């Protein structure tokens, strides 16, 4: 790659202005959800009997009859065509981690040599994508192509461009799930039943418990010209080399700073698209690292919230292109600055309006709150290794434990007030005395400033799983992830624990114990048994790593080895008891996880080798030639003694360049050899471990030499856009 491309890219990026955004003339509430077949649209386009039956099926988790599906399909098609749709697709989330879609036109033969627009209930409810073309972990062979996508009636259809998108599950011909939505729905159903059992001990009128999710999507923006000049960004989503800029985030001047004009135009455009699609985008701001930003929505039911996040990630990419940006969703696209996460704010609420993780005004309310917190503690403690495995992959592994993201150890932050009341519970015989202080006020003694309300708990940014007032913030989830991967494990673990708790309480009741006593004694047991997971200190410290190991928490840092936690007997039994995943499905998913890990590292390794040998090394050799020529001329002009002195700095640079070039060439040769060894491994697990243990360290060594060369080689010769350009041209 010529350095000319770099400078042309820099020049092009530097000259860009904010793209003018034509905002709708209406207020948001008037066009919000205009591209969604929501209940307003259903009511308008469906016969009343069909509408009532569909709403009843959605609200009460009933199966939709084929006859009813035909009526829904007819109304949905009329609505879609009225809104410009010409095609339809089943929209699903295979085990690739992204979404998939196959577009079909609304046409069938009319029997007269022409076509007629048609969309039946059969097509709406079920389609048949090729299951052999997606990761299956061995469930489907390449010659076994049949798979099914089936409509998820709880998530509304929507229109993107001119295509009606129907959210669906994706299963194999033999019935196993090949996606994230199927086990997510199972886990949500499981925690609904289990949490309802426990909630009814306090409030018998409760019929359902809903899981709520509020995600925080972090991302980087890079000008598309600079992006195109970095093959590593194009192919892998992250920079495989690059010395950190003299200025990055050390002045802490980007977080919550003034949003750059080009970025603000992008955000306005994105928000408008989100609102049309029913995504309740609410908060936007600069994140910590330069050119890093965040978008967060209003909380929603978890399945819908997850669909909205998947949709957002694809919409972001399209909108970014309109503004001459590229979105980077990789968890660690730039070394030396903060990576990107997707904090999952997770909570449970009853159909009667009770937030189960919110302290109340009465002793009974607080007793219920502590009961649910104690069960979450127990679930997270028992399955802390599994929860970590659910959020780790080849990309998020770069972020975890990097002193700017949650450590690669799962612990729970509860705050001083909740911690105190947990201690009180252990030493009380009655639940009526349990109290938590509400919000307090703080006065600044400044007349113009009103008194501030303080929450009953602080926040701990080093904790991967923190209580934040009425919810838990699962901070370890990666920015590119499908949230479902984390939610499946978390919901299943908590559901299983709540069922075990309910069984134990009911056993005590059968022996004649009063309800309050039975619950209290079981809560005490959970608090005592789960103390190890509770940590309110600095999760970044070396002392905590050592302490966590002493407590028996999972401190493994190798992603391929973390996946073993899925196959622990307690994990398999938990998933099977809750009906979320079968052993066969777990085994298949692990195969996919190991395979995806290996492939991602393999691609990175190949890209790094190409850039190192074909781009970086030639640039270094070229500059070395200029230095050699200069040294030769010095010796021609000066006497030998003076020439040796004058040429000494140049000779030192020449030697350093030679050493780094040799290190790069040897590193690439060794890396290729280790890659070949890994590819010959007999199974996906061994291959992934080999890539982690033997290929990744060599990639880091090669990068170190390349980054050293970047400081030596003439800026005019260096071929790739540098960090100062990628991060600060906006």
Features:
Four Helix Bundle (Hemerythrin (Met), subunit A), 730 residues, 6-stranded mixed β-sheet, Creatine Kinase, Chain A, domain 2, alpha+beta, 23 helices
Question: What is the gist of this entry?
Answer:
With 730 residues, the protein is α+β, with helices and mostly antiparallel strands. The protein has 23 helices and 19 strands. 49% of the residues lie in helices and 12% in strands.
Please tell me what the overall shape is: globular
What is the CA-CA span between the terminal residues?
23 Å
Poorly predicted runs are 440-449
CATH superfamily of the largest domain: Glutamine synthetase/guanido kinase, catalytic domain
CATH domain fold name of the largest domain: Creatine Kinase, Chain A, domain 2
CATH architecture term of the largest domain: 2-Layer Sandwich
Q: Assign a percent range to the helix content.
A: 40-55%
Describe what this molecule looks like in 3D.
49% of the residues lie in helices and 12% in strands. The protein is of the alpha+beta class. It has 3 domains: 32-179, Glutamine synthetase, N-terminal domain (Ubiquitin-like (UB roll)); 188-581, Creatine Kinase, Chain A, domain 2; 596-728, Four Helix Bundle (Hemerythrin (Met), subunit A) (Up-down Bundle). Strands 9, 10, 11, 12, 13, 14, 15, 18 and 19 form a 9-stranded mixed sheet that branches. Strands 1, 2, 5, 6, 7 and 8 form a 6-stranded mixed sheet that branches. Helix 12 (363-382) crosses helix 15 and helix 13 packs antiparallel against helix 15. The protein is globular.
